[in-house]
Design a protein that fits this description.
Distance between the termini: 49 Å
CATH superfamily of the largest domain: NAD(P)-binding Rossmann-like Domain
Strand content: 5-15%
Low-confidence stretches: none
Number of helices: 10
Strand order of the largest sheet: 3-2-1-4-5-6
Order of helices and strands: EHEHEHEHEEEEHEHHHHH
Shape: elongated
Radius of gyration: 22 Å
Largest sheet: 6 strands, parallel
CATH topology of the largest domain: Rossmann fold
CATH class of the largest domain: Alpha Beta
Number of strands: 9
C-alpha cells in the first residue's frame, strides 16, 4: 500500500518508523520544513520525499500530521490531486472543527478524522519520533456517513497493524472527553509554571530549585509546542472552558474546606480522590510526594 505522511514531526515520524518496520508499504513524506525533510532522509524514514502533489496522487491513505488549524488548509491543497478511492486522515486532538463537505471531495475520496492517544513529548521533528509509540494505545476515529464501511475498515486494518486499539466516536464526544483528560492538564501545567514564576519574583527566591517530584510531574507537559497548543485551545475552546469550570468547582470546594479547617471533610475529599485514582489507574505506582 502507498501511504503518505504530511508533517514529519514527532507523530508523523513515529508513524513512518512503524510503517517502514511493518514492510509492504511505499512511504511518501512531505514537510514544509526543509531541515525536517533532510533529517527524515538521513533516518531513512520513507521511500519518497518532498513533492506534496506526487504524494497525494500516488497514495492510498494520507496522514496529515500538522497543527490542528493547518489541517483543513492541507486537505484543501491536496484534494485536487488525490487518487480515486483514497483516504485522508489526520492525527489532530480536536475533531469537531475539522469538517470537510463530502460534496467537495473528488470521486470516492473520503476524509476520516483520527487521533492517536499517545504519551506526550517536549521535543519535535523527526528525531523526536520513536518506534512502537502506538502499540496498545487508543486511536480514535470519527467517521461520518460519507465514509463507507469498506473505507473505514481499510483505515482500521492499517492502524490495527500498528498495534493500536481503534475506537469510533462522535466528534463532539471526542472533544468533550479530550478537553478534560488531555487539554485541561496542559492548561494546568502552563498556568502552574506562570504562577510559580510569579511567586519566584515575589519572594525573590529561586522557587524552582525547591520543586520536588509532584511539581515536576504536574509541569512536565508545560514544555509542549506553543503553536500546537495555541491551535488546540482555540479550536476546542468550548470543551476546554467547560473542563476548566468543572475543575475549578472542585478546587473551590477543597479551598473552602481548607479555609474552614474542616478536618474530616478534607480527609474525605482526599481519600475519595485517592480511591478513584487507585481504581482507575491500578497499574501506576502510588506517588505521594
Amino acid at each position: 500500500m502507498n501511504i503518505g505522511i504530511i508533517g514529519i514531526g514527532c507523530i508523523g515520524s513515529s508513524l513512518a518508523r512503524d510503517l517502514k518496520k511493518s514492510q509492504g508499504h511505499e512511504i511518501y513524506v512531505h514537510d514544509n520544513n526543509a531541515d525536517f525533510l533532510e533529517q527524515a532522509k538521513e533516518l531513512s524514514l520513507a521511500d519518497h520525499y518532498g513533492d506534496i502533489k506526487r504524494l497525494a496522487s500516488n497514495c492510498d491513505i494520507v496522514f496529515i500530521c500538522v497543527p490542528v488549524r493547518a489541517i483543513l488548509k492541507v486537505i484543501e491543497e491536496i484534494l485536487p490531486h488525490m487518487k480515486e478511492g483514497s483516504i485522508v486522515t489526520d492525527v489532530g486532538s480536536v475533531k469537531s472543527s475539522l469538517y470537510v463537505n463530502p460534496k467537495a471531495m473528488p470521486k470516492d475520496v473520503v476524509y476520516i478524522p483520527g487521533h492517536p492517544i499517545t504519551s506526550g513529548t517536549n521535543t519535535s521533528g523527526p528525531m523526536a519520533g520513536r518506534e512502537g509509540v502506538f502499540k496498545g494505545r487508543k486511536w480514535i476515529i470519527t467517521p461520518d456517513k460519507s465514509a463507507s464501511e469498506t473505507q473505514v475498515n481499510k483505515l482500521k486494518d492499517l492502524l490495527d497493524s500498528l498495534g493500536a486499539n481503534v475506537l469510533s466516536l462522535s466528534a463532539n464526544v471526542h472533544d468533550e472527553m479530550l478537553g478534560f483528560v488531555s487539554h485541561l492538564p496542559h492548561v494546568m501545567a502552563f498556568s502552574a509554571m506562570q504562577a510559580a514564576n510569579e511567586l519566584d519574583q515575589m519572594l525573590d527566591e529561586d522557587v524552582f530549585t525547591f520543586a520536588g517530584g509532584s511539581f515536576m510531574d504536574l509541569t512536565r507537559i508545560a514544555g509542549g509546542d506553543p503553536d500546537m497548543w495555541r491551535d488546540i485551545f482555540l479550536t476546542n475552546k468550548d470543551s476546554i472552558l467547560a473542563a476548566c469550570s468543572l475543575f475549578s468547582s472542585k478546587m473551590d470546594e477543597l479551598k473552602t474546606l481548607i479555609e474552614n479547617e474542616s478536618v474530616e471533610e478534607i480527609h474525605q475529599f482526599v481519600n475519595t480522590a485517592h480511591k478513584i485514582k487507585v481504581e482507575k489507574f491500578p497499574h501506576q505506582e502510588n506517588e505521594t510526594k
